[in-house]
Amino acid sequence: MDVPWRSEFVSVRPIIVAGLRNRRWVRPSVLAVVLLLTGVVAFSWLGIWQIKRAHEKEALLASYAGAALAPTIPLATARVQSAQVVNPHVSMRGRFDVAHGYLLDDQIRDGRQGVLAFALFEPNGDAQPLLVNRGFIVRDQATQLPDLPKGEVALSGLYAPSPGSGLRLGGNALPRQDHWPKLTIYIDPKEIAADLGRPIDSRVLLLDADPESGFVREWTPQVMSPERHRGYAFQWFCFVIASVVILIVLHWRREPGEST
Fold it and tell me: What is the spatial distance between Cα 94 and Cα 154, in angstroms, rounded to a whole number?
């Protein structure tokens, strides 16, 4: 059976072979070699770094997923172990400070804009209160937050580092506000402690999910996914191959005097 493209390839094959034979390798200049090596090293390092970041993100996501399923431990124990355990799952009893709260603005969940509501909690037998992240609520409902329980209550959740501060545009806005809850674009325990006039824990409590709470409590960090990091790594490694190919193409030249 005759394949249509085979006859065409046979007809152009001599031209291809002749073209290859009429080319010779031209030694690259020192500058070209330096540029190639610099590019290969830089692109390789960036690709390896992206793979490393992918592994770190996988470990971070796994730590949150695993911690939420772990048995709870007392807050005092978690404070001792926090250097070894990333996000201990803790339980405690105490009272909310119903007069003070903070709203972390510019939060997005499932395409909806809203805030994260933080309340101050005073554990029993502990002189140091801590911020409790009650969860996400859409902006339209942020003016009428569900009431905090009065009296002694039991809480459980992840004892986690406070959210990153990001860019602090406009400085600390807390002292300029006289109504509660106060609105902020970052959570800094030191600035909040100064605003409250009392020391607080450097970590926060991410409350366990509760469908009746009125808040969305999904504590997966809002970070670049491991898949995207691997995609960027693939691009950097492609640049490595492209750099080598470009050098070969530019220095594998046609013999002088040969027609095209």
Answer: 7
Please list, in sequence order, all residues whose beta carbon lies within 8 angstroms of the beta carbon of residue 142, skipping any fewer than 6 positions away. 103, 114, 115, 117
Cα 86 to the chain's mean position, in Å?
16
**pTM higher than 0.70:** no
Q: What is the mean pLDDT of residues 192-209?
A: 90
Instruction: Name the helix (H) or strand (E) containing 137.
Output: strand 130-138
Nearest 5 degrees, angle CA 218-CA 150-CA 154? 50
Angle 99-102-104 (CA atoms, 0-180°, nearest 5)?
165
Q: Could you read off the pLDDT of 126-176 as tens digits, one per residue?
A: 778 999 999 998 887 777 888 888 889 999 999 988 876 555 566 677 878
Q: Please name which of 90, 87, 82 lies closest in space to residue 63, comparing C-alpha atoms.
A: 87
> What tokens appear for 248 in the block?
């070969």
Q: What SS3 state is found at 132?
A: strand
C-alpha span between 16 and 26 (Å, rounded): 20
Distance set, CA 212 to CA 25, 47, 228 (Å): 74, 45, 35
Please state whether the peptide bond connecting residue 181 to the residue before it is cis, i.e. omega within 30 degrees of 0.
yes
Phi, psi torsion values for 119, nearest 5 degrees: -125, 155
From 63, 114, 111, 107, select the one nearest 89 (Cα to Cα).
63
Where are the alpha helices (H) located in the chain, listed in sequence order?
A: 4-21, 30-69, 75-81, 189-196, 226-251
